[in-house]
Amino acid sequence: MVQEVIYSEQETVIRVDDVALRVYVGKADADQPFLLGHLYQVRGGFVQVKTYVFEAMGKADLEAMKKVVDFFFASLLDTEWYIKEVPRDSLLFAQEAVRLYGEEHDGAVCVIR
Questions:
Q1: Tally of CB atoms within 10 A around 5
Q2: How far apart are the C-alpha atoms of 111 and 113, rounded to whole Å?
Q3: CB neighbours of 39 closer than 8 A, spacing ≥ 6?
């Protein structure tokens, strides 16, 4: 696994194998495929500390992007207290809906029971 991390003041770029993600805190661009990563701490309960935006730079597969998010939290932040989210306004939402709920037919997700 080839890893490259580039830091700047506004964002971090993480490249793992062929997947490159731009990581920043702020509002996500709905015209891009992105995930959210919510960092938590334990303070008498689980308290959300920060939300990171993981935006694809170029073409990216959802599962490959999730692995990069895992790398970010586990290796760079040294934590297991996080949640990955694929928001409705992300271009990746359709892929996640198919994975969770079933097959896609004519642009609609059909729930398999």
A1: 14
A2: 6
A3: 48, 49, 50, 51, 52, 73, 77, 79, 81, 82
Let me know: does 65 contact 77? Beta carbons within 8 Å. Answer: no
Q: Name which residue leads in pLDDT, 53 or 108.
A: 53
User: Quick one: which of 46, 36, 43, 105 has its CA closest to 72?
Assistant: 36
Per the CB < 8 A criterion, the answer to whether 90 and 28 are in contact is: yes
> Which residue matches tokens 């999730």?
66
CA distance 110 to 107: 9
* Cα-trace Rg, the chain: 15
- Tell me the whole-structure pTM to 2 decimals: 0.81
How far, in Å, CA of 107 to CA of 30, rounded?
Answer: 19
The pLDDT of residue 108 is: 58
Strand partners, 20: 15
Question: Which H or E run includes 97?
Answer: helix 93-101
- Assigned token pair, 32: 């891009």
